[in-house]
Amino acid sequence: MKLYITKIILGTLFLLNTFISAQTLSKNQFQVKGNCEMCKDRIETAAKNAGAKSANYSIDSQTLTIETVDDKSADIILKKVAEAGHDNEKFKASDETYDKLPGCCHYERDSKTVSTIENHDQHQKNENEFYVKGNCGSCKARIEKAAKESGADFAEWNAEKQTVTLKFDTVKTSADKILKKIADVGHDNEKFKAPDSVYKNLPGCCLYDREIGFGEKNPKVHYEEETKKEDHSKHNHDSEEDHSANENSGEKNIEQVNIIGSKAATSISKKDAGLIFNIDKKELLKAACCNLSESFETNATVDVSFSNAVTGTKQLKMLGLDQKYTSLTKELLPEIRGLASAYGLNFIPGRWIESIQLTKGGSTVTNGYESITGQINTELIKHAEKSETSLNLFADFNGRAEANITHVEPINDHWTQTFLLHGNGTFGDTDMNDDTFLDRPKGTQINAAYLLNFNDLEHSGFGSHFGINFLKDERTSGQIGFDKNLSQKEQSLYGVGIDISRFQVWNKTGYVFKGKPYQSLGWMNQYVYHQQDSFFGLRNYAGKQHTYYSNLIFESILGNTNHKYKAGASFMYDGYEEDYLTNNFKRNEIVPGAFAEYTLTGLKYTLVTGARVDFHNLAGTQFTPRLNFKYDFTPQTILRLSAGRGFRTANVFAESQQYFASNRSIQVLQNGGNIYGLKPEVAWNYGASLQQEFKLFGRKSTIVADFFRTDFQDQVLVDLDRSPQQLTFYNLDGKSFANSFQTQWDFTPFKNFEVRLAYKYYDVQADYLDGRREVPFMAKNRGFVNLAYSTNKNNKGGFWSFDTTLNLVGKQRLPNTSTNPAEFQLPTYSESYAVLNAQISRNFNQKIRAYLGGENLTSYYQKNAIVDFKNPFGNYFDGGMVYAPIMKANLYVGLDVTF
């Protein structure tokens, strides 16, 4: 009997213990950083030694799955994992421990910063704060629906901040329950990770970066502990009374993520094989970004210079070569090329720009064959979670005024429309160097665009973007007093008139295959009509261009996502008609083409290799191979290599209009080609870059050094040296090359203060008819300094911003004028100079911003910008010898208002 009772008691205790264990044992996933099998062993061992019943670490998903007795023990385990050297979502390893890890274990640490182990008790993350990953409107709808289905009375997800605001009855549900449901439908968050099977079946537009922190498509999130603590204290103070009432009445609580910080204004894509700079709208607001030509004032990679002392136009140069060798696209469609080359930078207003992607060296073959030194792609404003209208007003102290209106409106869950309107006018007579010529033209521009976007990738798999743009630009320049309405025969003054009309319509449509988010089909189409009527003194130039472009791209994988490929076909038609003096030039360029590109992704490397073949009716069959390779020695040390070929047809008249404001006669030395009697331009570009990140002053610091060489197999040379009275075009016979070296250092010495330093060296030479010479108007040495500081936001969201940029330009070789009379001769080399720009802006809240700035505050200007300006119809008159600014300091003011 006694033995029987003992067995009953023991059995009951065993069942009770089993029941209690089953009730308290929980299984959770946490984000932990690691790279390799050594990391996996170290993390799992640390977790088990800290009390985990089981521990399994996935290198691919960067997650640690553990079974624990209670939630509190999970914190102890994650702390031990951090002590072993691995950052996770609750604790950060000390720098000393991290540095002692083997080289292969040095994971990337800058995606998300949490408290260090030593400071965790003083700076704990607010337990009511969460983030949820996603990309688009479909993600927003899915996240909010899941939250409401799990008991939330209110849920709002913010794509830009990657934050969710929840309102719910704590009696009926909990934050954990809601976040678990959100993970179940495919969205990782700081407490739960979505199942791989669910994530893989999301539409292509919803496939966010699953590594710790946010990826390239989303803001980089970090917790600035000091600021967060202040915000949290303020939140507690403001809501103390409400919280007390909630405790007494059982009212609903609001839980919100407060994330401080966003993606950098300019960043280098660490995942792309090519050297790509992503320029955000925040960067464009640092200067008077009135159009694309002024969008690079705070960027060290692109050189911006005046190309003419009469028309006041600006041109870009990259890797030591003229703008025409860089592919300039809008929405990944060909934009500034052909007849638009001279003035096209003025056709994209700065306030229309959402972002810019700048690629150094040969870009992907899917975007065409014309890129030689790189690609600059501009994306227009077209995304908004709610209806938003913005007004920008700008004026400078020399008679220039601009107005921009942008309106983005979601029509419904799938449709969004954007209205863009720009107008500018220059009305004052500006002559700062007293040569009787206007330093910049007078005139007006009206520019309007409408964009319509459709996104139903989640259900039907389709997405589409439609755009239409019309522009009218009229400019008058020359001597003060010139009347454009009178013919040249009726007046003695020298004048320049430029009238441009431009119309564009385009569409991009994509389809993501159901159940295959990695497989898609895209088709892009665009039609452009461009017309220019102009005169330069007694010299007339007019041109018309019709362009149709089509590009079909299929993308998929070979076995798995480590092996991706693209294949497709393109078609380009350019119809040109030009009149210069009494000469008429007509031609049609018809270019069908095909391409393929393969991407191999390994643990530490990415290889992108592709080729295209184009059947040009005038330039013959052209083969264009390109290769980009990236190797991560560590997450902080990245090597990139690139090589590729490009070709283009030269538009010698349209691309050399800066020399029309002179009395040079034009001569084309034909060489048997089918375009002006010249052959196409063909060049190879090779590049290498090293990107190194490290900590300085306790903050992220980045140094990038790159070297690029461009070798021309054939080139149309623009020879200004044969005679000061002649402009000669001919094909290269010999060598032409450009060596470009740049090093750039970005760092933050203290909070809210950003510093960018750069040095550039160029060696650009060509074999002209009379021997090898340096290409004119190219400084061998350039220096760059950009400083940006902003104050902390006040309780209304207001803050101050201060930005300044200093450009140091070394001496440049000038065209030979030795046969001119002594008073009309230029030195062999220009002098060095410095240009300082600065801007102060005040954000009063999230709706109103005012700014005051100055350009060329050093007031350096070229005093002899126009040769023989007193006799503009004489043999020695030349307004194309420009190597420096032609205007002194200029101040401007502006206002941004968002409704």
Describe this structure in words.
The protein is mainly beta and 899 residues long. The protein folds into three domains: 24-117, 2-Layer Sandwich (Alpha-Beta Plaits); 125-263, 2-Layer Sandwich (Alpha-Beta Plaits); 266-898, TonB-dependent receptor, beta-barrel domain (Maltoporin, Chain A, Beta Barrel). 12% of the residues lie in helices and 45% in strands. The protein contains ten helices and 41 strands. It has a 22-stranded antiparallel beta barrel. Strands 7-8-14-15-12-13 form a six-stranded mixed beta sheet. Helix 2 (37-49) crosses helix 3 and helix 5 crosses helix 6. The chain is globular and about 95 Å long. The protein starts with a helix and ends with a strand.
Secondary-structure map with pairings?
Blueprint lengths: L1 H23 L1 E6 L5 H13 L4 E5 L4 E6 L2 H13 L11 H5 L37 H13 L2 E7 L4 E6 L6 H10 L11 H5 L24 H14 L1 H10 L3 E4 L9 E3 L6 E6 H4 L18 E4 L7 E5 L2 E2 L3 E5 L2 E2 L18 E8 L13 E7 L7 E9 L3 E11 L4 E12 L15 E15 L5 E17 L16 E18 L7 E17 L2 E20 L1 E21 L2 E19 L3 E12 L3 E15 L2 E12 L16 E5 L11 E16 L2 E16 L1 E4 L6 E6 L4 E15 L2 E16 L2 E4 L6 E10 L8 E11 L23 E11 L4 E8 L34 E9 L1
Parallel strand pairs: 12-15, 29-33
Antiparallel strand pairs: 1-3, 2-3, 4-5, 5-6, 7-8, 8-14, 9-10, 10-11, 12-13, 14-15, 16-17, 16-41, 17-18, 18-19, 19-20, 20-21, 21-22, 22-23, 23-24, 24-25, 25-26, 26-27, 27-28, 28-30, 30-31, 31-34, 32-33, 34-35, 35-36, 35-37, 37-38, 38-39, 39-40, 40-41
Helix pairs in contact: 2-3, 5-6
